[in-house]
């Protein structure tokens, strides 16, 4: 077993999903949850086991969504969503919900590039060039600028060195600095995955809601789940555990051993629907 039920809500969710799959919204983060973390963010690929399980779940659950900090186009491409079975109705919310793609209709809502992100870009590029540690990568996400230290000569030192510099830039341009696993992200809106999850739940009318995530950006979604539970919904927080973010485990109803564990949980969810 590569996942564990930490609370009773884990089993309650499986029971409720089996009882009425159409009432379920299954929302999942991409990197670190559906896709193993890799050194180069461009090499990110969906876990085969997760893709197989979602092929079974995609047609049966009420709603399946990917809620990610990445852009929609990137996740569509890296996740190969259009080639896969079971993704015909998936909704992808990119950049924390600033962008959206509906597989069923093909409709795409692009994000606007805020002026302050564009204005901050040269300063961020300069900060990376000036960093004493080589190999830090800038990812331009449109509404956000991701500064990746994972592939640098010393990821932790680069992170520590860049954090105060980027904090200054963020303040100067009225941007938010979002810390993550070897990534510092400057972004314009205060839109969170929690906002996106709440909006999806009210749009779909789902009453049984699970969210899978692995990183700090997923915390607002887990907070939203607790609010929904207090309001009477059946909810389940699935944490893709990692040594890099051990405190995320505190959020878990289901604690999975990284993307392998998430894939196993998805498989067990699909099996629960057959019982
Ligand atoms: Mg993640």
Describe this structure in words.
The chain has 275 residues and is α/β, with parallel strands linked by helices. The chain folds into two domains: 3-110 and 191-274, HAD superfamily/HAD-like (Rossmann fold, 3-Layer(aba) Sandwich); 115-187, Alpha-Beta Plaits. It is 37% helix and 21% strand. The protein has helices at residues 9-19, 48-57, 72-78, 115-130, 155-172, 193-204, 219-230, 258-274, and strands at residues 3-5, 24-28, 63-67, 91-94, 99-102, 108-109, 137-140, 144-148, 176-180, 183-187, 208-213, 234-240, 254-256. The strands form two sheets. The protein has a nine-stranded mixed sheet, with helices on both faces. The chain has a four-stranded antiparallel sheet with strand order 7-8-10-9, with helices on one face. A hairpin with a 2-residue loop joins strand 9 and strand 10 (183-187). Helix 1 crosses helix 8, helix 4 (115-130) runs antiparallel to helix 5 (155-172) and helix 6 crosses helix 7. It binds magnesium ion (MG). Residues 29, 31-33, 214-215 line the site of magnesium ion (MG).
- Give me the Rg, rounded: 18 Å
Largest sheet descriptor: 9 strands, mixed
**Order of strands, widest sheet:** 1-13-12-11-2-3-4-5-6
Counting DSSP E segments of at least 2 residues, the number of strands comes to 13
- Distinct small molecules bound, one entry per kind: magnesium ion
The N- to C-terminal Cα distance equals 19 Å
The parts where pLDDT drops under 50 for at least 5 residues are: none
Percent strand? 15-25%
CATH topology tier name of the largest domain: Rossmann fold
Number of helices: 8
């Amino acid at each position: 077993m590569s996942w564990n039920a930490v609370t009773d809500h884990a089993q309650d969710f499986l029971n409720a999903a089996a009882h009425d799959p159409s009432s379920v919204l299954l929302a999942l983060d991409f990197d670190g949850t559906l896709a193993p973390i890799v050194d180069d963010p461009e090499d990110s690929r969906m876990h085969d086991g997760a893709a197989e399980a979602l092929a079974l779940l995609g047609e049966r659950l009420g709603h399946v969504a990917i809620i990610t900090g990445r852009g929609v186009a990137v996740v569509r491409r890296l996740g190969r969503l259009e080639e896969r079975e079971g993704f015909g109705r998936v909704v992808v919310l990119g950049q924390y919900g600033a962008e959206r793609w509906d597989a069923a209709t093909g409709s795409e809502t692009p994000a606007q590039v805020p002026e302050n992100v564009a204005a901050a870009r040269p300063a961020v590029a300069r900060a990376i060039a000036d960093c004493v540690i080589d190999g830090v990568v800038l990812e331009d996400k449109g509404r956000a600028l991701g500064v990746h230290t994972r592939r640098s000569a010393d990821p932790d030192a680069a992170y520590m060195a860049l954090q105060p510099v980027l904090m200054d830039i963020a303040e100067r341009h009225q941007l938010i600095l979002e810390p993550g696993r070897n990534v510092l992200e400057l972004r314009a809106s205060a839109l969170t995955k929690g906002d996106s999850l709440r909006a999806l739940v009210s749009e779909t009318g789902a009453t049984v809601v699970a969210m899978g995530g692995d990183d700090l950006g997923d915390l607002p979604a887990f907070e939203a789940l607790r609010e929904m539970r207090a309001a009477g919904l059946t909810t389940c927080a699935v944490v893709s555990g990692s040594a890099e973010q051990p405190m995320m485990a505190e959020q878990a109803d289901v604690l999975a051993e990284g993307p392998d564990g998430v894939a196993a949980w998805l498989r067990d969810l699909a099996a629960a629907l057959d019982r």
